[in-house]
Amino acid sequence: MVFDQQPDGDLDDMAFDESRLGPVERDDFRETVADLIERVAAADDVRQYLALRAKITLLESAYPPDTLATDAQYAELTAQADALDIEPADIQAAGPRAFRGIQQYAPDSASPT
């Protein structure tokens, strides 16, 4: 999903596996589609985790940390992702590109957790 502005509303109710704040360059869009195609082979819990991380990363790219610290939606999405207990090896097994998009846009992308 490409957002034209900062997301508002309940992201938890939106079904998407990856997101970007527009405008999105053609090459970035193509790479994101390639990432999503690779994720199809991943286990269901890994795909669910990556979709949650995409929403979390979108919020982190749109809002400052002090806003997120008190945001109930952010806390809920983070809790859902943490509850899945996905290890870096699980994500790596999904393919080398599976986590690229989230890492690219995450403020602190040293690890997938």
What does this structure look like?
It contains six helices and two strands; from the N terminus they run ββαααααα. It has 113 residues and is mostly helical. It has one domain (2-105). Strands 1-2 form a two-stranded parallel ribbon.
Offer a few descriptive terms.
single chain; mainly alpha; 54% helix; disordered C terminus; 2 strands; two-stranded parallel ribbon
Strand content: under 5%
pLDDT below 50 for ≥5 consecutive residues: which ranges?
104-113
- Major β-sheet profile: 2 strands, parallel
Number of strands: 2
Number of domains: 1
Q: What oligomeric assembly is this protein in?
A: single chain
Radius of gyration: 13 Å
Class from helix and strand fractions = mainly alpha
Can you describe this structure in just a few lines?
The protein has helices at 26-39, 44-62, 65-68, 72-83, 88-93, 100-105, and strands spanning 2-3, 20-21.
Task: Outline the secondary-structure elements.
Blueprint: E1 2-3, E2 20-21, H1 26-39, H2 44-62, H3 65-68, H4 72-83, H5 88-93, H6 100-105
Parallel strand pairs: 1-2
